[in-house]
Amino acid sequence: MIADVVIVGGGPAGSTAAYLLSGWGMRVLLLDKHRFPRPKLCGGLLTAKTSALVSRIFGVPSPELDRLSEHVAWGYGLYYRRRPILEDSTEEPFRLVRREVYDAFLLEKAREAGAEVLEGERVVDLDPEDPERMVIRTAKGRVLKARFILGADGVKSLVRRRLGFSEKAAWRRGLALALEVSIPRRALPVAEPRVYLGYVRTGYAWAFPRKEDLLLGIGALLSEAGGLSRAFGEFLSDLGIELRQGPRAHLIPFGNFLRRPARGRVLLAGDAAGLVEPLLGEGIFYAHRSGELAARALRLHLEQGHPLEEIYPFLLEQNILPQLRQALKLRGFFFRRAHLLSRNPFRRIWHLLRRPCLDVVHGKRHYFLSRWMSF
Ligand SMILES: Cc1cc2nc3c(=O)[nH]c(=O)nc-3n(C[C@H](O)[C@H](O)[C@H](O)COP(=O)(O)OP(=O)(O)OC[C@H]3O[C@@H](n4cnc5c(N)ncnc54)[C@H](O)[C@@H]3O)c2cc1C
């Protein structure tokens, strides 16, 4: 089969693009190295903007999203180590999903829309055979051809590496390492997602409740990776938790987003393009959104002849990149001064600012409060 588009990776970025492109009548082949449901280390926290986006794209109404979620929280907590800065309610819920379930659900939606999905197929190579077709090879020896390729294959993206994007200084400087562990929910009475500052200089720790367990994690830039286990140990000890098993680790793009993730007939979306918000580490929203924008770019290219290498970066610039740049600018300032937030008068100021800040998190406005967002 010669597909119009081969999508590598069936996470949120890949399934979104596959769903839309198939719905528009294109022949889509999606390959994932895993069989679904597959494990994915993630906090699984969906902000309101993510829920709204998923509802709009996949036509999943809020009650169905609630059923898909492990937990729906109408509040949150912000702490500086053990000291509370803020414990507050929210007008919009945070949904906490188990990624194994969430990703499998959305991949099924893509399949229902007409995408052919090959699970357990690891892509090991790709190269242009002629100006019109790309060749994709899998570990099982399958050779596939496509007019276009979308790399949605996560932070260690093979597609990105094959395109020749630099993996060196700038990319590595913007990578974070995250550790995460699951403990039984009864071990700690936490009903809302909590964020803990002060254990690392370039990130934070978290406690995210699900139905039966609680995810405890910590993430910081790779420059701090040497001390991350010790920092995680301090966090756990402050919570009074003793682990029976070691945490699992995973990389997160954390400020190394690519401005132009397009080369020839190949596009990158989601973590593969580094599209994660560099203050909060929120990636699910940006994976869905960039998957959608990549699909729109392909459609505009095919229907109106817009050059792919121009139209996709343009759409990203219009819809995603300003927000990521603003978050990156704020990050140093915010984490450096985190210790002040639990003390007056800063604590009081933070209380006054909490609604606009929450609006930013939920996507009702940009960081610098300049423009209302629409999804
Ligand atoms: C510990 C941790 C906690 C996080 N918590 C949150 C959170 O609470 N909220 C949030 O919004 N974000 C969170 N993130 C970020 C979020 O998980 C990612 O940004 C998001 O999963 C990106 O989606 P994606 O579709 O781009 O890639 P992924 O979800 O990583 O999917 C990539 C897919 O590609 C497949 N693949 C990879 N290589 C190949 C290959 N060679 N051939 C075929 N298939 C391949 C993989 O099997 C995978 O299914 C967290 C990340 C970590 C590490």
Automatic annotation (TrEMBL):
InterPro entries: FAD-bd (IPR002938), FAD/NAD-bd_sf (IPR036188), Geranylgeranyl_Rdtase_fam (IPR011777), Geranylgeranyl_reductase (IPR050407). This is Geranylgeranyl reductase family protein. It comes from the Bacteria. Residues 3-168 form the FAD-binding domain. Gene3D superfamilies: FAD/NAD(P)-binding domain. One of its GO terms (molecular function) is oxidoreductase activity, acting on the CH-CH group of donors, NAD or NADP as acceptor. Pfam families: FAD_binding_3. It comes from Thermosulfurimonas dismutans.
